[in-house]
Design a protein that fits this description.
Layout (H helix, E strand, L loop, with lengths): L16 E7 L3 H7 L8 E3 L1 H11 L5 E9 L2 E7 L7 H7 L4 E8 L2 E8 L2 E6 L14 H11 L6 H11 L5 H5 L2 E7 L27
C-alpha cells in the first residue's frame, strides 16, 4: 500500500511504541529485515491487528508490527516492542539506505539515525551523556520539539521526523488497513544499541554490524 493520506494528531506516537522510517523499501522487505516472514502479513486495520496480537500473546510475548510505504519512505510501527531500536535490526534495515527510529518503551525514550548499517546519531532525549560522538544535528531539534510539546511523550519527535521526511502518518491513516503481523519475542533481535538495554550507551558512529 502506498498512500500519503492522514494528517492530524499523532496520539499513537506518545508512548509504548517504536517506529522506524526507511528510505526506498517496501513493507515486505521491512518485515524480512526485521526477521519476520512477510508472507505471514495480513492487511488489517488497527483494531483487528491489536486483536491478532492479543490472541498471539496468550502463548508467548509478541511484538505487533504494522508497515507500509508513504512516498519513498517505508514505516514500521511496533506496539509495546523493542525490535525497532535494537542495533541488529537497525543495521539490517539501513543496509544500503538510511533509517530513522523513534522509540518510547519500558521507560526508555530513544532517537536514532542509521545509514548503511552504521549508527550516525544516537541519544536518549534529556540525557546529554547518552549522545553518540561525533555529535549530530538532531539533539537540539529534538530537545526543542519536546520542550514545546511537554506532556505529549514522543509525539513531537515523531512529528519532527515526519516533517523532515515530508510525509504524514496521523492517527486516522494508521488506524486504517496496513500489512500487519506478530513476531514472537524469542525471534527478535536484541534490543538496544550494543547490548540488552538502550541506556547502556550508544553504538559509536562508524561501527559496522556484520551479517
Amino acid at each position: 500500500m502506498d498512500t500519503g493520506g492522514g494528517t492530524g494528531s499523532l496520539e499513537w506516537a506518545r508512548e509504548g511504541m517504536c517506529v522506524t522510517f526507511t528510505r526506498g523499501l517496501g513493507p515486505e522487505e521491512v518485515f524480512a529485515r526485521c526477521g519476520a516472514d512477510p508472507e505471514r502479513a495480513r492487511l488489517l486495520d488497527w483494531d483487528a491487528a491489536s486483536d491478532l496480537a492479543a490472541e498471539a500473546s496468550d502463548d508467548v510475548p509478541v511484538s505487533l508490527l504494522r508497515a507500509g510505504r508513504i512516498g519513498e519512505w517505508a514505516f514500521c510501527v511496533e506496539e509495546d516492542g523493542t525490535i525497532g531500536f535494537g542495533d541488529e535490526a537497525l543495521a539490517e534495515l539501513s543496509r544500503g539506505t538510511e533509517t530513522y527510529a523513534v522509540a518510547t518503551t519500558d521507560g526508555i525514550d530513544v532517537f536514532q539515525h542509521w545509514r548503511d548499517s552504521e549508527c550516525v546519531e544516537y541519544f536518549e532525549p534529556g540525557m546529554e551523556h547518552s549522545r553518540s560522538a561525533p555529535h549530530g544535528p538532531w539533539w537540539g531539534r529534538v530537545e526543542a520539539a519536546l520542550a514545546e510539546g511537554q506532556g505529549l511523550g514522543m509525539e513531537p519527535v515523531v512529528a519532527l521526523v515526519l516533517g523532515h521526511l515530508g510525509i504524514t502518518l496521523g492517527d486516522a491513516a494508521l488506524a486504517g488497513p496496513w500489512p500487519s503481523l506478530t513476531l514472537a519475542e524469542d525471534d527478535t533481535p536484541t534490543a538496544g544499541p550494543g547490548g540488552d538495554h538502550a541506556g547502556e550507551g550508544p553504538v559509536p558512529p562508524g561501527a559496522v554490524i556484520s551479517w
